[in-house]
Amino acid sequence: MNRPFRLRPCEWVVIAYFGLAAVRTAPRAHWTWLAAIAIFAGVGSCALARAETRTRRRALAMARDWLALPFVLIAYWSVDWVRDGVAIHSFQGSWIVLDRFLFRDLGLKAVIEVFGPALPFALEFIYALLYTLPIAALAVLYAGGKRSRVERFLFVLLLGVFTTDTLMPLFPSTDPRLRFPGEDLPAWMTASRALNLWLLSHFDIRASVFPSGHVTTGLATALGMWLAWPERKRAGLAFFLVACAVALAAVYGRYHYLADALGGAAVSLAAAGAGALVYRGGAADSAGGAAPPPE
After folding, report:
1. Which residues share a beta bridge with 289?
2. How far is CA 165 from the centre of its chain?
3. 256-271: per-residue pLDDT in tens?
4. Taking Cα atoms as reference points, which of 11, 73, 18 lies closest to residue 44?
5. What is the pTM of this model?
6. Phi, psi of 208 (to 5 degrees)
């Protein structure tokens, strides 16, 4: 007799996002691609879940862990498919006022650049590596023997990222370095900044910058790690510090407004709250084990 299988909450998030995106886009161009991705995610998730339940093979459970990550980039790039019409910049006139206060009145730009190009280089470098953070977090959970808690981490990450991707087309905008050219740009053109500008010119979306996908990904990674491994606080703290550096780099580099960063942070916090509700029981492993003692 076939054992019943279940989809993980994070897998439902993937299916729901692409299904909703297909509905929002229809009957415009690309809606068939989004529908196909939703079907592929649903059928693939069910097939893997069923095979894992029947065979109890660890490799299939691991495949479900890692195959969730490519959907983060696919969903981000799909934002351009969902947008409706030409970008509207009415929000940005008020957003830039807050940035000017931050950089000029509070002197944040001068503080970052007080020691020359060292800190600007480091911030831009961390910003460039943002999308390796979820991979690093999964690796940390695996190395710590907490693979059974990976789905908690993935739920917070994917819910945060896909919520941001859902909201972005509602706030059509362009990044401040393009909307307000030459205003408060970094004083140093470091190698890491040149890399970021190249990546953005070749792989970035054009629909919106609010909320910030970079900030959401960074902070949701940190909060997801805290939810998955609360007794290892140092791991969550390390990812949180990196997420803060990403947020600072996003605003300093003029890739985002401060409002974008705050929006991404709010989405991440909401996703973490939802994760805490879905995975009640603290640090207990998904397999049903008791919570280990705190460090």
Report:
1. none
2. 9
3. 999 999 999 999 999 9
4. 11
5. 0.91
6. -170, 160
